[in-house]
Write a structure and sequence with these properties.
This protein is an all-alpha fold. It has three helices and no strands.
Amino acid sequence: MEIKPSNSYSPILPAEVRPPRRAVQVTTDGGEFAGTEALQRALNATPDVRPEAVARGQALAESEHYPPAETMQRLARLFVGAFSAQPPTAAQP
């Protein structure tokens, strides 16, 4: 006897059974990378805040010419293109 399903859904198959992962044991030979200490010293010597970058950012924020008008026009075109490419949602008329 052959049974034919009356729907178009595929039958549910059992999940793949995978063997449990073996634990990996990490061993070290006690050696270190040659530049590790030098890199750590350089990292420790780097300040968290760069005053010159902060001053530049403040100056740009206070400038009426930043960002340039051309950049703003390009951004506006990108936004208009992105919004006009999207289909209207329920919140939009």
